[in-house]
Amino acid sequence: MIPLYKPYMPDQLPELDAILHSGNLAYGKWGTCFEEKLRKYIGNDLLVTTNTYASAIQTALTVLGLQPGDEVIASPMSCLASNLPLAAFGLKVVWADIDPAMGTLDPDSVKSRIKPQTKLIFHNHFCGYAGYIDEINAAGKEYGIPVIDDCVEAFGTVYKGRKTGNLGTDITLFSFQTVRLPNTIDGGALSFRNKEHFEKALLVRDFGINRAVFRDKHHEISPECDISQPGYGATMSDVNSYIGCLQMDVLDELLEKQQKNAILWNQWFENNMNGVFRLNRRKETRPNYWVYGFLSEHKLDDMLRFRELGYYASGVHLNNNNYSVFGRKEYLPGVEKFNAGFVAVPCGWWVNREK
């Protein structure tokens, strides 16, 4: 059966053995290389990598100065890996409803949840399908609340001709976990609109250390270097970064395969499926097609039908407001309607729809 997700890895990793035996395994030459390739790709120089996606979230929350007890508005219709770190940081997660035809935050619902305690809007772009970016950013600006674009599944997604990470949002988060493109086995990144936030993130991800002045001319730790910023050990290793560098060299080719698969799925659905609503009817967006999504009136039947055809279909995520860790469950009609109908089928670089 053709899987819904599959980790990509280059056939050859010619420098890997040399890196492993170099004595330089931590963030270094290849970490810098990977960041430069990412910056060039998305068109934003204010980007840093981290060792995990959860570390990227922690870094972002620390950079913004959030404190335990602060409220964050988020979508429950997203990956648990996005929302659980918010609760672990001590934030109170306030769910907003979604547009049931999109799977992403409804701007009107977001505005209705804003209170004096609201310190952040966490905007998930469900399964690589871009949400109401302009509208959510405008709401954040109107109320003086920072917005994070949660692109855990949306690296390479395009909105109005620009890639995620370069859309004017305060901070954008990416995941490079095994089933993402690119994947570094594990890792993440943050892209910033504000240079001060970027410079602070460089410290936060590395124990608050400014490496340029951390050691003196004798390579001893300098007492002149003060540590004034709390931080984490969140830098990406050179092993992971090297894998990321190689994947960036073929990323356009892989994403192009996914775009072609999506076009062929569009044609197949027009000829073979009645009573379904395909996602991405908006001309201003171009998903990365991490998966190909549609809304069905008979979700389980259609999932099983595609599995019989040899494609592992799935609902992907369970809406997170089901989990008691986030507090009392709240009924959200858009979330319930979307979750009742959403099905994803494989669309990745490993799928050949031309057969």
DSSP, total strands: 13
Give the H and E element order: HHEHEHEHEHEEEEEHHHEEEHHE
Spatial strand sequence of the major β-sheet:
1-9-8-5-4-2-3
| Relative strand content | 5-15%
CATH class of the largest domain: Alpha Beta
User: In whole angstroms, how far apart are the ends?
Assistant: 15 Å
The coarse overall form would be globular
The CATH superfamily of the largest domain is Type I PLP-dependent aspartate aminotransferase-like (Major domain)
Q: How many domains?
A: 2
* Main sheet characteristics: 7 strands, mixed
Report the uncertain regions: none
Number of helices: 11
List the keywords.
single chain, about 350 residues, alpha/beta, Aspartate Aminotransferase, domain 1, 11 helices, about 15% strand
Kindly summarize this structure in a few lines.
With 355 residues, the protein is of the alpha/beta class. The chain is 34% helix and 15% strand.
Please explain how this structure is put together:
The chain has eleven helices and 13 strands. It has two domains: 16-249, Aspartate Aminotransferase, domain 2 (3-Layer(aba) Sandwich); 252-345, Aspartate Aminotransferase, domain 1 (Alpha-Beta Complex), CATH 3.90.1150.10. The strands form three sheets. The protein has a seven-stranded mixed β-sheet with strand order 1-9-8-5-4-2-3, sandwiched between helices. The protein has helices at 16-20, 29-42, 53-63, 80-88, 107-113, 133-143, 195-204, 238-248, 251-272, 299-308, 333-341; strands at 47-50, 71-74, 92-95, 118-124, 147-151, 158-159, 162-163, 171-175, 188-192, 276-278, 285-286, 292-296, 342-345. It is of the alpha/beta class and 355 residues long.
